[in-house]
């Protein structure tokens, strides 16, 4: 609260309106009314973040006027993705954007409170004074020449940047960065010393090259150091003039490493001093690098590579056909360094939701949007509706509905560009989630815009509005409370737009109003054999097509020709494989059916980016990231925290499947004498794409990681995600088209599941309870008559189905279940004898209720009851005869 009010005061905002107490109280009573105020605050804060951080962002070239032009929420999308912030601030900004997106969809006041909470944390940062010293320390490339380097004065920030460059040049794991290594000191000393031992050898190798360059002597080759123990490696540096203090520090570090092998519980002071001495060695290396750059500046003022050149030829070591080239690490310095900029990485970033080009404006349709445009059925419908509207005398209202990022703005921009004559008589309102006035909410703005379509009013102009379904629902509720727009509200009720099973978009109540709903346009199509997605396929082809008009391919090809090859370039090469493309799309559709994944075109583009570009390359383009962990199969399944889409992919990771083929693959990798040869045998020429990271992993003996990579790649090269999913798709198609023969197979399975749900003691009998600990269990006879919901069954025709609900409403007698894929998967496991855990049982609660309904009906229609002794399996049937003096009749079965 104090931080919020301090921000309001410091930025001269109206103290009463923007006061924390007023804002939070208003959220509880009328959240929508407070949104414009919060957007004002976020707008103000976004400009402060621009002033403070944009020079350090990887969009520093982006003009201020472009940043100023986008909506406040889109400003924060850019800030959360592109600005160099601390982890806490970056995550806070991302949570704030997500909360705003959720509010736009669901209009919950709790989302607005979450936005306020995250905003406070972000305010605290911009309220701090940013001293010149801090700014100077961050950007150490501006450091003046060091003729005498004082190691103690090297800041941690400078060291951290140099450390990262060291890892990149030696192609070491990203987990070996300074912060990660330091964090291990407090909770895992074994991991700490393991990291130090991995770094000591390349550190000694680099140190030797600096010392050799100073003395104008030839350094040793890496192969000469590789087979030696660390103690011997550092002893070799004596011949090159290793300073006494460096020698003592290295000796202490190596001695502690040897002690740790036999004693895992070393004293904390010893662990701390060892880490400090190791850091000293890195600082000393950094000081050498600065000295070498000083000499380079004095001798050659023009630009040169940021690698210390040595007159003598440097030997290249070959180990198992993998070349290790010695690289001298030096921090980049203005006028000296020359970074190789990857045009492909720069171009790929337009796929991110935070990219300036990702958020399309209805009045701007650039060359990239033109190239990426994919024709969709809703485009044709919009054009037809506009053509119809142009012929009408009465003003028309067109609502283009959907969700955030599904392409509404893109479609509007395309139509304005391609069919300007159709929209010249229209008022176009592109974003109904925002207000155009500081004094009015977005709903009040909509009310004013649609005033001519209110009862008793006469519209003067055609209107086209892009609006999220959540906002439309809010407007409907808002006007219902005010008893306005009665005809419009009846129209909304008639077409039942908030019910996703509805397919009606027109109503006689308001014939001049037309609704086109993106949410009714599936991103996939259903055939008898499988689910396809022409939309996802065409967008992906726009990205990977090997043609000169493809800006992504052109940039990739130019990089490859210039020798710029990173993990992203290798992943892009694999993504050009048609089978891999098909399987990636199948996994997306599988996630939509199984996990109810929602994926818009915007999130789809970002998903493709995340398959190409590893996280460390996204953060630092100078890193090659050529490592097994950064290959496409691992990026797809092993990064659940990177996005919601990747979280779904992780849920369906092939490593989580149980199969004999998977076990066989792991065994072969672990036991093979020629692992790379085995990969060649399994994948053919395709494996050459990842030759370098595979051979590197073989050298490092990472056979488990190799097996995991291979299993994931093998799945991406296969023809299906799940056999069970293919069966469900076939049944769904048969249900929608009315194929009785195939549906008969499904009902046979469903009947088997009913008899296995709690068990069956006898043919045509099912248990009433599932308690196996009871002495006696009761069962009743059932007769099951298959039934379907006639409103949906057999109502579609054609080889390819596009507009449908991906569930089947079916059951027995008059009782139905909504059978979606998730439930079908659980029930199929029951049919195979699997006993459900608590989570699975909760997902199958609908079937439990269905089962209970069947048993109640059976008890009313049949008076027999079977008693089963659980210990000896004896069975007796109790019944009440219709024409007998006996009350009950008991028969032993």
Précis, in short:
The protein has 893 residues and is α+β, with helices and mostly antiparallel strands. It is 54% helix and 8% strand.
Please name the defining characteristics of this protein.
893 residues; alpha+beta; five-stranded antiparallel β-sheet; four-stranded parallel β-sheet; 39 helices; 54% helix; globular
The number of E-state strands comes to 16
Q: What is the percentage of strand-forming residues?
A: 5-15%
In DSSP terms, counting alpha (H) and pi (I) runs of 4 or more, how many helices? 39
Q: Which structural class should the secondary elements be placed in? A: alpha+beta
Major β-sheet, in short? 5 strands, antiparallel
Mean pLDDT: 81
- Which descriptor suits the 3D outline? globular
Spans with pLDDT under 50 lasting ≥5 residues? Answer: 57-61, 130-149, 294-338
State the helicity in percent bands.
Answer: 40-55%
Our measurement of the CA-to-CA distance between the termini, rounded to an integer number of angstroms, reads: 75 Å
Q: Rg to the nearest angstrom?
A: 34 Å
Physical arrangement of strands within the biggest beta sheet = 9-10-14-15-16
Textual characterization of the structure:
This protein is of the alpha+beta class. Helices cover 54% and strands 8% of the residues. The protein has 39 helices and 16 strands. It has a five-stranded antiparallel β-sheet with strand order 9-10-14-15-16. A hairpin with a 5-residue loop joins strand 14 (865-869) and strand 15 (875-879). The radius of gyration is 34 Å and the shape is globular.
């Amino acid at each position: 609260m104090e931080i919020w009010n301090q921000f309001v005061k410091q930025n001269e905002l109206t103290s009463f309106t923007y006061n924390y107490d007023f804002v939070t109280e208003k959220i509880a009573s009328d959240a929508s009314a407070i949104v414009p105020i919060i957007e004002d605050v976020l707008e103000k804060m976004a400009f402060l973040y621009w002033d403070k951080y944009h020079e350090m962002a990887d969009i520093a070239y982006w003009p201020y006027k472009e940043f100023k032009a986008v909506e406040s929420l889109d400003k924060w999308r850019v800030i959360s993705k592109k600005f160099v912030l601390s982890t806490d601030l970056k995550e806070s900004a991302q949570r704030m954007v997500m909360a705003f997106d959720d509010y736009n969809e669901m209009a919950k006041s709790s989302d607005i409170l979450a936005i306020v909470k995250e905003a406070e944390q972000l305010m605290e940062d911009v309220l701090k004074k940013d001293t010149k010293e801090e700014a100077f320390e961050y950007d150490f490339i501006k450091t003046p020449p060091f003729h005498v380097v004082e190691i103690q004065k090297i800041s941690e920030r400078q060291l951290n940047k140099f450390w990262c460059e060291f890892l990149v040049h030696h192609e070491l794991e990203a987990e070996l960065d300074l912060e990660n290594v330091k964090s291990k000191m407090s909770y895992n000393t074994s991991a700490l010393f393991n990291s130090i031992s991995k770094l000591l050898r390349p550190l000694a190798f680099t140190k030797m090259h600096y010392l050799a360059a100073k003395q104008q002597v030839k350094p040793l080759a890496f192969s000469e150091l590789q087979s030696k123990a660390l103690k011997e490696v550092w002893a070799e540096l004596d011949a090159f003039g290793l300073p006494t203090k460096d020698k003592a520090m290295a000796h202490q570090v190596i001695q502690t490493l040897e002690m740790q092998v036999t004693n895992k519980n070393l004293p904390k002071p010893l662990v701390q001093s060892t880490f400090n001495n190791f850091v000293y060695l890195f600082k000393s290396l950094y000081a050498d690098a600065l000295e070498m750059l000083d000499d380079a500046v004095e001798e050659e003022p023009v630009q040169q590579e940021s690698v210390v050149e040595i007159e003598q030829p440097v030997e290249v070591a070959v180990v198992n056909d993998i070349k290790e080239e010695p690289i001298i690490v030096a921090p980049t310095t203005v006028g000296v360094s020359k970074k190789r900029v990857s045009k492909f990485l720069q171009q790929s970033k337009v796929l991110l939701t935070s990219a300036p080009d990702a958020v399309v404006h209805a009045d701007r349709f650039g060359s990239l949007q033109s190239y990426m445009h994919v024709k969709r059925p809703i485009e044709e419908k919009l054009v037809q509706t506009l053509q119809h509207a142009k012929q009408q005398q009465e003003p028309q209202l067109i609502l283009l509905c959907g969700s955030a990022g599904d392409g509404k703005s893109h479609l509007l921009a395309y139509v304005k560009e391609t069919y300007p004559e159709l929209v010249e008589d229209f008022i176009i309102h592109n974003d109904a989630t925002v207000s155009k006035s500081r004094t009015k909410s977005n709903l009040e703005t909509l009310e004013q815009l649609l005033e001519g379509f209110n009862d008793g009013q006469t519209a003067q102009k055609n209107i086209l509005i892009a609006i999220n379904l959540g906002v439309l629902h809010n407007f409907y509720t808002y006007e219902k409370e005010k008893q306005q727009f009665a005809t419009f509200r009846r129209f909304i009720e008639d077409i039942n737009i908030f019910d996703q099973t509805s397919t009606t978009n027109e109503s006689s109540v308001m014939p001049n109003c037309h609704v086109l709903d993106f949410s009714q346009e599936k991103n996939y199509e259903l055939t008898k054999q499988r689910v396809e997605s022409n939309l996802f396929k065409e967008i992906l082809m726009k990205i990977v097509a090997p043609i000169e008009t493809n800006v992504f391919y052109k940039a990739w090809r130019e990089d490859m020709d210039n020798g710029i090859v990173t993990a992203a370039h290798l992943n892009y090469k694999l993504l050009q494989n048609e089978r891999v493309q098909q399987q990636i799309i199948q996994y997306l559709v599988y996630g939509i059916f199984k996990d109810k994944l929602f994926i818009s075109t915007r999130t789809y583009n970002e998903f493709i980016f995340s398959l190409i570009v590893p996280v460390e390359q996204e953060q630092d383009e100078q890193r090659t990231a050529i490592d097994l962990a950064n290959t496409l199969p691992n990026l797809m399944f092993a990064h659940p925290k990177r996005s919601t889409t990747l979280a779904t992919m992780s849920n369906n990771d092939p490593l989580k499947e149980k199969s004999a083929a998977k076990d066989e693959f792991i065994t072969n990798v672990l036991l093979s004498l020629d692992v790379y040869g085995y990969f060649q045998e399994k994948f053919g020429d395709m494996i050459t794409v990842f030759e370098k990271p595979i051979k590197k992993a073989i050298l490092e003996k990472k056979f488990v990681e190799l097996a995991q990579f291979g299993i994931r790649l093998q799945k991406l090269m296969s023809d299906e995600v799940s056999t069970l999913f293919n069966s469900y798709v076939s049944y769904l198609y048969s249900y929608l088209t009315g194929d009785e023969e195939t549906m008969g197979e499904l009902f046979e399975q469903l009947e088997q599941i009913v008899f296995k749900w709690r068990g069956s003691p006898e043919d045509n009998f099912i248990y009433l309870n599932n308690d196996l600990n009871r002495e006696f269990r009761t069962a009743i006879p059932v007769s099951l008559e298959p039934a379907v919901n006639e409103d949906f069954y057999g109502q579609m025709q054609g080889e390819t189905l596009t507009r449908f609900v991906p569930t089947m409403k079916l059951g027995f007698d008059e009782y139905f279940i909504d059978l979606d894929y998730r439930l079908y998967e659980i029930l199929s496991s029951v049919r195979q004898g699997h006993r459900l855990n608590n989570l699975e049982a909760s997902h199958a609660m609908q079937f439990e209720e269905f089962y209970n309904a069947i048993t109640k009906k059976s008890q009313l229609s049949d008076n027999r009851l079977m008693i089963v002794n659980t210990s000896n399996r004896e069975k007796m049937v109790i019944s009440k005869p219709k024409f007998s003096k006996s009350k009950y009749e008991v028969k032993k079965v």
